[in-house]
Predict the structure of Nitroreductase domain-containing protein.
Amino acid sequence: MVNPIFENRRAVRKYSKEAISDDKIQEMIAAFQTAPCGMHQADVMNLVVVKDEGLRNKIEEVTDNSCYNAPVLFLINTKKDSEFGERDVSVAAENIMLEATDLSLGSIYIMGGCCKT
């Protein structure tokens, strides 16, 4: 039998304005930190958690509203020259999204949305 967390995870494009507790955010950060990475090079990834509404709005502007007004953004980046960086980021993002599902929160995976300057 498949774990329900995999069946229940969905790409959510509409969010409530309700704040997410710091405890839940910390649980999602822990999920990021436990993600496997290529060649044990966890230093190629960086996680930035954005809760500030003003900063979220600026990010929305440069990403053509691809963040769907989510109350918290988890931005994961990697070094350009990392051999496994893009894959590592994908695995870490999935860990965060599965943890969000377990916490009854919605999430969506958006790749490359913050590449504009």
Notes: The chain has four helices and two strands.
